[in-house]
C-alpha cells in the first residue's frame, strides 16, 4: 500500500497581513456584496429621477411652494471633508501594522474613532438638509435610504475601530490583530469612497442636471 504524498507546511507563517490571508478575501467579497447593494439603490434613485420633470420634485412648505428644493450643501460637504481627512490616520495605522508600531496604531485608531463619531453625528444633520421627510415621496424615500445605509456602515466601521483599539490597549499587538486592523482599514477606505459617490449624486447632481 503506497503512502500518499504530503506537503510540508511547517515553515509557513501562522498569519499573513495581506491578500494571502483568507479573511482578506472574505472582506473583499463582503465589500463586493455591499457595493452591489449600493449600486441597486443608486439605480433606483435614477429610475425614480426619470419619473419627475423636476428633481428633486417640488414640495409644499406651509403655504409656499418650493420649486427646486435641492439638499443643503454645508453639512454634507463638511462630512465629505472630514471623511477624506480620516483617510490619513487610517492609512498611517495600516502602514504601522506592517511595522508592528503599537504606539502609532493606538494614536491613529483613536483619531479614526474621533472622525467616525463626528461624521455619524453630522449624518443626522444631513437628513434635515435633505428638506424632505422620508415618507413624502419616492425621492425622499430613496435618498433617506441611501444615507441611512451609509450611516450603518459608518457605525459598523467606527465600532470595529473601537474594538481593535480596546484590544491593542489591553493586550498589545500580535500578527493576527495586525491583520484584522488592516482588513478594517480597507473597509474604512471603502466607506470613504462610497460617500464621495453619494455626495456627488445626491448633493451635487440636482444642481448640475
Brief overview, please?
This protein has 209 residues and is mostly helical.
Molecular structure report:
72% of the residues lie in helices and 3% in strands. It has one domain (22-49, 73-208): Up-down Bundle (Four Helix Bundle (Hemerythrin (Met), subunit A)), CATH 1.20.120. It has a two-stranded antiparallel ribbon. The protein is built from 5 helices and 2 strands; from the N terminus they run αββαααα. It has 209 residues and is mostly helical. The longest helix has 34 residues, at 138-171. Helix 1 (22-49) packs antiparallel against helix 4, helix 2 packs antiparallel against helix 5 and helix 4 runs antiparallel to helix 5 (175-208). It has helices at 22-49, 74-99, 102-129, 138-171, 175-208, and strands at 59-61, 64-66. The N and C termini lie far apart (75 Å). Strand 1 (59-61) and strand 2 form a beta hairpin. The protein is elongated. The model has no long low-confidence stretch (mean pLDDT 88).
Question: Which SSEs are present, and which pair or pack?
Answer:
Blueprint: H1 22-49, E1 59-61, E2 64-66, H2 74-99, H3 102-129, H4 138-171, H5 175-208
Antiparallel strand pairs: 1-2
Unreliable parts:
none
Assembly state of the chains shown: single chain
Helices and strands: which structural class?
mainly alpha
CATH superfamily: Cytochrome c oxidase, subunit III, four-helix bundle
- End-to-end CA span: 75 Å
> What top-tier CATH class fits best?
Mainly Alpha
| Overall mean pLDDT | 88
User: What's the CATH topology label?
Assistant: Four Helix Bundle (Hemerythrin (Met), subunit A)
Tally of DSSP helical segments: 5
The ordered string of helix (H) and strand (E) elements is HEEHHHH
Helix residue percentage: over 70%
- Gross morphology: elongated
If strands are numbered along the chain, what order do they take across the biggest sheet?
A: 1-2
Give the strand content: under 5%
Amino acid at each position: 500500500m503506497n503512502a500518499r504524498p504530503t506537503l510540508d507546511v511547517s515553515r509557513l507563517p501562522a498569519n499573513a497581513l495581506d491578500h494571502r490571508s483568507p479573511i482578506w478575501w472574505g472582506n473583499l467579497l463582503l465589500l463586493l456584496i455591499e457595493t452591489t447593494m449600493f449600486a441597486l439603490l443608486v439605480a433606483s434613485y435614477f429610475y425614480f429621477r426619470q419619473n419627475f420633470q423636476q428633481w428633486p420634485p417640488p414640495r409644499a412648505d406651509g403655504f409656499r411652494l418650493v420649486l427646486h428644493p435641492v439638499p443643503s450643501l454645508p453639512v454634507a460637504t463638511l462630512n465629505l471633508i472630514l471623511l477624506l481627512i480620516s483617510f490619513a490616520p487610517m492609512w498611517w495605522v495600516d502602514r504601522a501594522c506592517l511595522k508592528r508600531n503599537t504606539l502609532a496604531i493606538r494614536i491613529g485608531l483613536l483619531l479614526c474613532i474621533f472622525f467616525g463619531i463626528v461624521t455619524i453625528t453630522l449624518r443626522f444633520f444631513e437628513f434635515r438638509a435633505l428638506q424632505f421627510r422620508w415618507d413624502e415621496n419616492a425621492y425622499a424615500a430613496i435618498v433617506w435610504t441611501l444615507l441611512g445605509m451609509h450611516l450603518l456602515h459608518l457605525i459598523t466601521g467606527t465600532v470595529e475601530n473601537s474594538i481593535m483599539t480596546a484590544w491593542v490597549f489591553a493586550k498589545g499587538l500580535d500578527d493576527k490583530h495586525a491583520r484584522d486592523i488592516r482588513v478594517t482599514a480597507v473597509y474604512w477606505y471603502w466607506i470613504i469612497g462610497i460617500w464621495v459617490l453619494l455626495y456627488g449624486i445626491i448633493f451635487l447632481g440636482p444642481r448640475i442636471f
